[in-house]
Predict the structure.
Amino acid sequence: MTDANRTETQEQRIPTLYLLPSTLADVPPASVMPQRNIEIARTVRHFIVENVRTARRFLKRCDPTIDIDALTFATLDEHTPASEIPAMLTPMERGADMAVISEAGCPAVADPGAEAVAVAQRRGYRVDPLVGPSSILLALMASGFNGQTFAFAGYLPVDPQWRTATLREMQRRIIREHQTQIFIETPYRNSKLIASLCQTLPREMMLCVAADITGPSQRIITRPLSWWATNSLELPRIPTIFLLYTDAPAR
Amino acid sequence: MTDANRTETQEQRIPTLYLLPSTLADVPPASVMPQRNIEIARTVRHFIVENVRTARRFLKRCDPTIDIDALTFATLDEHTPASEIPAMLTPMERGADMAVISEAGCPAVADPGAEAVAVAQRRGYRVDPLVGPSSILLALMASGFNGQTFAFAGYLPVDPQWRTATLREMQRRIIREHQTQIFIETPYRNSKLIASLCQTLPREMMLCVAADITGPSQRIITRPLSWWATNSLELPRIPTIFLLYTDAPAR
């Protein structure tokens, strides 16, 4: 191999966009993610993050010796115009690896990041998703509901009529397709949501409430709606996942 | 507190059913899961597993000093009658913690285990889902597709007419609900599946093929079906996840 060839090969190194999960709760990163993630967090110099302050704090918790001021951060959150995203990957044009970090949990799943991944895919870069905590996946595992087919819907509609229609469609998909239905709610509306589920759906429908996943007050409780109608969890400001399913035969 | 009271409190300790993910590929467990999982694998004595041989091998890789012959294993796979599952949790009646391990990845998600979790939930035991590799979640993260709403359908129907109808319904949910559609195929049918997607769906539909996730030949590639129609990946016997989405406006 000539020197010219060797240089060309180096220039053609395909950079990697890492998807680096962050902690869901205030726990040491190493308790909820593999050591490999910490090692990658140490080596990457350019980040696309949902929130610069939390990303810097997370990286410091991964390794207190990281020189945060030597790193670059581009902000990609729900307010970022799509047109600004391609330019965020400029360091990759020079062959540098980058990483996406969201506010909590896995980037691009119920969190920003997917648009940056789409740009990386279009440009033919490697995309490497790292293992980490996903409240949706952990809640599904612990619910006891059907994990052979399931759907995540994000937030339920706020409008009462539209919300009722959405819940009725979920009920149909549970019964006809045996598809577990997963959704979230703004924390301060959690109790109101449970009340509206009890009003709208049959009492034998099963509801799993998964709160503070991986945190010190983690609770994942599956009971029929008839139980939830008269019992309550204190869920004032805790991130919570809701799952619906029924074992009742299709009607 | 009297001795009698103290004994009663010990008897009332609520046991935990851990959901312990295993590796997807032939890699060291610590490279794809937190150290906490290894510590729990070391302490649990009673397991519910999809395959005893693979579970024993996985535990040995977690810690070669584990005395495998001192452990108990109950088999819960797709052939296990539902009526046999409650008795598998007998050690928990004596206050012992247990763990569920599936063949690869996260128990109870596209793998057996959910029925054992449902029994634990009904009995009021703690259920603790541990962080680990899920090929579905990792593929979704790396696809660049919508992670705000998505559905996993398991295997597509084998019958050609039913398969076409299923793909058309997926297309409707992508366009109307912007819901990413995720499914799997028996490895030896992977190439045939891609051909049938190209025949059934519009050429501008995007397909992500995610093969050998976390393994040495990991490839996660998102391209339009028009590209997949004339290009192929060699995917002879590799576990693969398929994802469909489109950025084309609703019609």
Q: What stands out?
A: Chain A touches chain B through 59 residues (CB under 8 Å). The radius of gyration of chain A is 21 Å. Strands of chain A lie at 16-19, 46-49, 72-75, 98-101, 126-129, 150-155, 180-184, 206-211, 219-224, 240-245.
